[in-house]
User: Fold these one by one.
Assistant:
Number 1:
Amino acid sequence: MEQRLLPGTRIEIVNENIERGRLKHLLFDFDGTISILREGWPEIMAPVCVEMVCGETEPTQAIIDEVNKMIDDTTGIQTIYQMECLQEMVIAHGLVPKDNVLSPAEYKQIYLDRLMVPVRARIARLEAGEKTVADFTVAGSIQFLEILSKRSVHMYVFSGTDQDDVRNEAGKLGAAPFFEEIWGALPSKEEYSKEKVIRDIMTRHDLHGPQVLAVGDGPVELRNVKDAGGIALGVCSNEKTGNGWDMHKRQRLLKAGADILVPDFNEAEKLVAYLFAE
């Protein structure tokens, strides 16, 4: 699909028919949307999944492709649900003895143990002053939050990352003060989902579609807000650099129903002006 950019910007307008200027409640995904502290998580999750599916057996390309598709399709969902998908794959392929099949929670712990090694190292470098907040955030994201905070809007984080972790990492990056609430995955997965958060907010505040915006780099939050009649802002962030397009994400977010796409928030002022029909 050819890009239709707002003149003089890198802001891609996918759906020109959204009703702009009525936004009241804004919901942000965190990892890959604001934070890049967890950059590279798919490259850590994928080998874990392949290893768990194959056990002692040499992986096939078909299994590697199946794992990558599962991760791609479920980006933004709670990690425990991804691990449920992993358990189903382990059982379906039958390469691991039944007695060695783990629970989704056990698979999640293996993945998190590996993921948190680089995450903790990045936080340590940030705290030591070796790196700055700009090194671990999507370009312009903090400025975007600052501009929005001066408007009459309510902002929240809803993340698939465990709640304690996302709150801690939002605090380290100086993003936490901008949000009225920071939600993340809870021990009981039934208590929390992005879909539930959107539905609850719309009901509690008697909101209608164009008053709600979801901002994220994963298909889950964009599909959820579109199903509720809201506006979907997709962030096609290159997490290795923090700025510029990740065209694979762009394709994924187009399929999820994004109304607007941006590579980052370097044009925060123009983006806000567009969202508020100014």
Number 2:
Amino acid sequence: MLVLGVTGLLSALLGSVAGSGGMAILLPVAVIYFGIHQAIPILTIANLSANLSRVYFYRRELELRVVGWLTLGSLPLVVAGTWLFTIAAPDLLTRLLGGMLLTLMVWRRLRPTAPRLRRAVLFLPLGMAWGFLAGFMSGVGLLIAPFYLAYGLVKGAYIGTDALGTVFLQSTKLIVFGSANFLQGAVLWYGLALIPFMFAGAWLGKQLLERVPEKIFAVLIEVTMLVAGLNFLLRG
């Protein structure tokens, strides 16, 4: 619990400073302790609490039109992606997680520039693709990040809007997990126990947002993603 709590606090802090990427630190640690089928629901509970706190902290800067279109596109697909997760073999999921972490690391390094987005409705198709991937796996927030930036969202507006869209997505995932009996025993205990650490990390991140450059955290994210990705991909 100490290891998970400290890692959770760091991941929430990172998510509040950089806007995304925090789960890339906590996810590999949780998988090592619990395996993929328990780790993802635990992190969904924990990350939901962190995003709720970010929504509160940045409530005056939310771009609700973006959240509305993104949610409309993502919710049907996140149900499908989460359902596939509940029936897939753990070894396959762990290798997919390894591949996803390595892909996200390359994505983060290349920093693709999305075309300038001038209409919030364009987040409808983006939400569909993002929702399916987020339902099947955690830590894919980096994939949607360039499009928030292309719409003109920065700092508090970016972090708060991303958090609110993720709240709706993660709430839907929890409903599917509950219907598939994935929210029992250790999953509920550790997920709920991580909530204070996630709130504390989100609060600390808000205090550091204006003071700490994102580059300090970038190396930590990328090293974690590289080591964990190779381990999961090769060993399953």
Number 3:
Amino acid sequence: MFRYTTKENQSVYDKNKVKIAEECYDAFKEKVDFSQFDGNGDGKIDATLFTVPTKAGDTDWWPCAGAFGDPEYRVDGVGVGHIITGNTQVESTGNYVNYISSYCHELGHCTGLPDYYLFTTDDSEGMHGTAGIELMDTDAGSDFGAFSKLIEGWFRQDQVQVYDASQGEQSFTLYNAQTDAGNCVIIPNGQLANDYFSEYFIIEYATNDGNNNGVGKNAAWWVTPGESVRVYHIDATTEYGWNTYFRYASGSEFTNQDTGRRLIRIIDDTDKDNFYHAGDVIDSSISGFRSSVSLSSASTTVSTRSAGSFLL
């Protein structure tokens, strides 16, 4: 982390984030080798965060991430990949939840995750209820959910359990998603793509531990904390144009103004306790789910009986 005072007044940089970025790189290039931050070897610094004082205002400095705007610029022989700019600061020594979660959300964008909140409806929250808390949605102080971790490649191979319909009833054990042992269960719709860019349900056991700790301590007014098993419906079909993107990401032309098929939905998407607990059976009576899943112990064992058609 480096502290820097800009050469010019704020107004010069409000609409020109490239200027403040290049000024900062140039100021510190004699002290640090920026090429070490090209972790994937593509010739670019992976991501850089530029955070300014809160008083800079939200109009031009609301946290956001994007590709760097000067493809010709080089520092220590490398270009610049994603940059994050924002005015979120640590609120106090005891409350830095919003600071961390704001910029972790933006880092999610830098690594390929889209927003899960909605762009074209009056209620922007993409997933509701106790089970609908996810950092790429509108929920500060929360962890990434199982789908985000899956796409980011954060699970070990043995932590991704896949239901095989040809094997009949199967049981899986879920561990606390907010620990290193956290895992998931996938129920595919048809053939599961090796890169997981296909359609499936994904199940996890979420708690208020670890990276969800802030949800319980400093929850926003619209957040009701809870913990147990939750289920997502995923359609991670991809589209290819000038870049690769999720076909059903919020706001895309394929989502029918965010009211149709979407990349991610929480099963039973309502403002209530929509986690599933020991003894619950999740079947076609649940909005958004057509399969049969029973929970046979305290939120840790899932028995999957069948996988039928999928319902949005």
